[in-house]
Design goal:
mainly alpha
Length: 173
């Protein structure tokens, strides 16, 4: 009988040791798989984020290029320079549809060149606005802009830029 008890004890110890080794190996393997999967997932996310960032950069660069082209368009400059004397409560472009139509003809060509842009909006410091593309809320066409701080921020930005340019020595031009 002692022989069977001894064999039973050795068998139980062996099973217990094998069970502990199996649990340890399972934990080590599981941690390795989790670590590898996490690294792969992070790498995939990083690649996707770089792609999204590149798309956003390209879109912003395109919008910036178009904004520079529009700002350099002499016909749009002429139309907006005539707006400086206009200080009525109504939107200038609603009152002067011929000027609005002329500006929109120029703006629509920029919209047709690129399918990325959905709308181009132009406005001046008097909050006169015109746009082409996807419709805007007509509340913005009124002079009581919901966020007039944007106009103040824009004016101060360009005033700062103008002051900075005045201090550049003319020999560099």
């Amino acid at each position: 009988m002692k022989k069977y008890q001894f064999q039973k004890r050795i068998l139980l110890r062996s099973i217990f040791i094998m069970l502990i080794l199996f649990i340890i190996l399972t934990m080590v393997f599981s941690s390795y798989v989790i670590k590898t999967s996490t690294a792969e997932f992070e790498e995939q996310i990083d690649v996707q984020l770089r792609g999204i960032t590149t798309q956003i950069d390209n879109t912003l660069r395109l919008a910036d290029d178009i904004a520079l082209q529009i700002a350099a368009n002499y016909q749009i400059i002429d139309a907006f320079s005539g707006l400086q004397e206009y200080h009525d409560e109504k939107n200038y472009f609603v009152e002067n549809t011929d000027v609005d139509y002329t500006i929109k003809q120029h703006l629509i060509s920029y919209m047709l060149k690129q399918n990325i842009l959905k709308r181009i909006s132009l406005f001046n410091s008097n909050q006169d606005i015109t746009y082409v593309g996807k419709a805007v809320d007509f509340g913005y066409l009124k002079k009581d802009c919901p966020n007039p701080d944007i106009f103040t921020d824009t004016q101060s930005y360009f005033a700062d830029q103008k002051r900075k340019r005045q201090f550049i020595p003319s020999r560099f031009f």
